[in-house]
């Protein structure tokens, strides 16, 4: 017997919103609404947004977000964002002050989770970055749900 995979509730909200808006082909709008949906539905966060990979610059550039102003350009391998992008794995940081090389945007941030955004063909689009003022904020379940969220978003975004 095989297990049935179901989308997380937050991924279902995203999917329903994009289809309801008929914005399936509007990449930038979909990133913006994806950030807003997370901001509205995930408790205890102070920053949520995307860093999108610019192939010409070979840098991660700030995309749609909600929170305080942020660093505009991040090099791959720099900070939590760069580490997740380069390793192509989710990085959960329970205490950002203990993370060597952490890039501070909001001094009240204490925890961070970064999820890579990569197409099935291997094209690296960027990362989802979420900060919280609470130490140890992000759980394994959060990681699973956010990775599912990104898989849902991938159907509606392209390289910018």
Automatic annotation (TrEMBL):
Lineage: Bacteria, Bacillati, Bacillota, Bacilli, Lactobacillales
Domain of life: Bacteria
Organism: Leuconostoc falkenbergense
Protein name: GAF domain-containing protein
SUPFAM superfamilies recorded: GAF domain-like (SSF55781)
